[in-house]
């Protein structure tokens, strides 16, 4: 009987500890998570938006080699499957690099 009482008490404490809701999780309810259309772009000035677009264009033109290789591998299904197991670098080397002695 003592064991049953002890287990019930421990279970009640565990439920109380696990079901406790802190006030930190309620912070998202205080502020609306969505902005209306009128205020959607007010946090960035037009000059900042122009600068961000220009930087995005530069990033698209000057991609790192590993990203170009990964995109090439993503377009080829066998390479993509191989990459899931061995990684994109190994997959790219297997399917797209010229092998020694091959012309």
Automatic annotation (TrEMBL):
Residues 1-19 form the signal peptide. Ca(2+) binds at residue 71. Keywords: Calcium, Chondrogenesis, Developmental protein, Differentiation, Disulfide bond, Gamma-carboxyglutamic acid, Metal-binding, Osteogenesis, Phosphoprotein, Secreted, Signal. The modification 4-carboxyglutamate is found at residue 71. Residues 67-97 form the Gla domain. GO terms for biological process: cartilage development; cell differentiation; ossification; regulation of bone mineralization. SMART domains: GLA. One of its GO terms (molecular function) is calcium ion binding. It is found in: Secreted. Disulfide bonds join 73-79. This is Matrix Gla protein. The lineage of its organism: Eukaryota, Metazoa, Chordata, Craniata, Vertebrata.
